Amino acid sequence: MATGPDGRVVAAIQEADEKGARMVSSLWELDATGEEQARRLTVSAKGESAPRFAPDGSLLFSSARPDPEGGAEDDTAAIWRLPRTGEARVVASAPGGLSLLAVADDGTMLGASSVLPGGTLATDGERRTARKNAKQTTIWHTGMPIRQWDHEIGDESRRLVLVSVDGDLTDLTPDVGTVTLYAASADLSPDGATVASSWTQRVRGGETRSSIVLIDTATLRRVALLTADDDAQYGDPLFSRDGNRLAVIRSTASSPTDTSYSRLEIHPIGGGEPVTAQLGDLSIGDVAWADDGTLLVAGDLHSSGAILAVDPATGASRTVAEHGVFSSLAPAADGSVVALRSDIATPSRPVRISAEGAPRELPAPGAVGALPGTLEWVETDVDGINVGGWLCVPDSASAATPAPVMLWIHGGPHGSYNAWSWRWCPWLAVERGYAVLLPDPAMSSGYGDAGLNRGWPRLPDVVFRECETLFDSVLPRPELDATRTAMLGASFGGFMANWIAGHTDRFDAIVTHAGLWALEQQHRTTDAAASKMRVHQHEDEVPEWYRQYSPHRAAASINTPMLVTHGNRDYRVPISEALRLWWDLVSAWDGPPETMPHRFLQVTSENHWVLTPSNALAWNQTVLAFCDQHVLGADPVPDVLPW
């Protein structure tokens, strides 16, 4: 979402292409009054994203669309400008791509690009061509990290680039290596004179630390503003509209006894004591400065969400909007806020929140029709802790025809079932006739520090006790069939699925996606190995913890049919977890091979999530068909999938 100086509102909206091969983003102008339908601004096969308004009212965006004038690199993202009237033109491009991060009051832009290690913006194009023509793919590593989510680290050096109004590029960080800015967040001061950026450095033990530096855009002089240490690090710097303050997120280092806690701090640029925002139980999500100098913060809160306005002088906060999960905050000049709002029953919809706090939906593509069931908040007491969750029940469920019930456990573990998800959409199962329970157990976000740390360090027995107790509290309902149940989870939820499979036979089917299986293995091979080993330590130091909680230790006890799904490009939970789990399941089956109940859906092009539309469709169809077979007694899923 983006708001312009003249009240315009623009959104980037994704939809699947006609082949189901990819999601394509385009820019749409929304009516800020909520009266008129949205108007599409851009069309291209490559798509357009990251809209921002320039001071002159033109619209800046990122796209890898072909440059009709032939000035931009083919198939790499460039910064484009769309005037109020006329065609879009390339503002600036670079061989390694160029994305837009911020815009100053005079129209100067901050961008990010990448060059091959040891190179410059001037020589990068020639070096890339030579490497591509030679089909060279080597990466020289000198330390950690070497991966992030689904891509390599070490093959490119990310750079912060100052882009003039005319498109001239200045590399602000010509001396950095491959790690310093690999995950950097940065902002440009309103006067264009200073860049604030996170700055990552390697330290002992395979760890990294992220500090905040200030870069003078005229001299490239760099000074440290906030220096990380063993206890905390900093990220997500954001200048206030007057440039006098910098909002940053301070995160403590996780340990075997405490998870990482995040604090939103406001630092005076000219010196002075920082102010810490008082956010209560809110877990920090999106942050944006309003024109009047207040700091807006959106995040998870009590299985829902809220937007808070923070006084930068005192840190005190007040509620701007609640009863929904808000993101992509875009404050407008009139004091209103444009944002995306979602909940369990509603996909992300653009809303305009007035200065009085009244939200109004803005017409835009992507709305859904009537849901196939009802949504209810349920809760129960677990050892003095109030544990709640959302219960989705199909309209067809009744005492005469009770619905089979699914228990879903979310990932993270710091997450919350509080918003719509197209990847894990319970309403697809509800339409199929299943009731779905979505708990927020221990370590869920939006319940303050105590909620985040309850069950730490990632204790599956604590989480399952809370989920199972809530599950058992709803099963006696006459419209639910307690004799037909399934359990599903992804990432941490997949780890939970794997652990549960070895510790109970109560479910008729279990689906595990991107789940951890052998913790001694995963903690070293994940892209987050440093934090995993810091928290969980070596198995020789805490052997009982690994014996009790690594799912593979209970492989011999698994009797429930399991569907394993995993993406080959997943570096957070590497495919080796699924491969080892699959071997353990198949090799342990002592019956005829054709009678083995377990199945493995391998998605070779996907990462931690299934994002390609056609793969997502096949994944959902497979998951539901597997549950139909083992929960409802439907026909077996065929050996050759028909979808």
Automatic annotation (TrEMBL):
InterPro entries: 6-blade_b-propeller_TolB-like (IPR011042), AB_hydrolase_fold (IPR029058), Peptidase_S9_cat (IPR001375). It comes from the Bacteria. Keywords: Aminopeptidase, Hydrolase, Protease, Signal. Pfam families: Peptidase_S9. Residues 39-73 are annotated as: Disordered. GO terms for molecular function: aminopeptidase activity; serine-type endopeptidase activity. SUPFAM superfamilies: alpha/beta-Hydrolases, DPP6 N-terminal domain-like. One of its GO terms (biological process) is proteolysis. The keyword Hydrolase applies. The keyword Protease applies. Transmembrane segments: none annotated. Residues 421-631 form the Peptidase S9 prolyl oligopeptidase catalytic domain. This is Dipeptidyl aminopeptidase. It comes from Brachybacterium alimentarium.
